[in-house]
């Protein structure tokens, strides 16, 4: 799912509520901001490749990436 809209309209709240509901149902959820995702990949690339980080992002039943488009990403 992709939610678009101006800040303050409840997109993050809705994503967190869905994530919490799935956790309560026994599923796994990984919630990160887009800034954390970029930092994780840049950091792991410098260390040991992307395999470890990809596993962390691809294993959960639901991956929520928040704050996309909020600010300019680091270069």
Automatic annotation (TrEMBL):
GO terms for biological process: DNA replication. Gene3D superfamilies: P-loop containing nucleotide triphosphate hydrolases. CDD domains: AAA. Pfam families: IstB_IS21. Keywords: ATP-binding, Nucleotide-binding. SUPFAM superfamilies: P-loop containing nucleoside triphosphate hydrolases. Residues 3-73 form the IstB-like ATP-binding domain. GO terms for molecular function: ATP binding. This is IstB-like ATP-binding protein domain protein. It comes from Rhodopirellula maiorica SM1. The lineage of its organism: Bacteria, Pseudomonadati, Planctomycetota, Planctomycetia, Pirellulales.
